[in-house]
Known about the structure:
The chain is of the alpha+beta class. It is built from 3 helices and 9 strands.
Amino acid sequence: MYVSFADMETTTLPEAPESIRAISSIPDPDYTDTYTHEAADASDWTPEEWARVCFNEIAGFKAWLMWRFMLRMKLRWWKSSGTICGWRIDGQGPDWIRLESDGHRFHGNLVYRITDGQAQLATIVKFKRPEMAVKWQKLQPTHNGVVPSLVAETHKRLRDKAS
């Protein structure tokens, strides 16, 4: 699936590639996806910069409220030290960052990986209750509609800040 935003393209993969799954702290996930945004200048910013702009600035407090109260994630205050939008920074490398949160319903990772010409954002989830798989299927169309534009808007915002 391609979603075009002017000169930018974001590709949705129904599964996280092995390069992303190897970064995850969830060994046997029930759900994964990856959104790959093609951008020649993607590596001009660190994975943490991508994640902070994406989640703290663009998704922001509304996303924190949704994750915290609708999905019942155990998040810290949305701008706490060592977190991005309440998700704990669980690991980092030169080209990736892993955010982690636990909850009553599922355990999740958000992984940003930056390579030459690409920014990848992956969602990796392990359901704690069987009924969450059914609930996630209802939420998935919204997730699939929002995340590609979120990644593209992050790139635009990073470019705007640099100029």
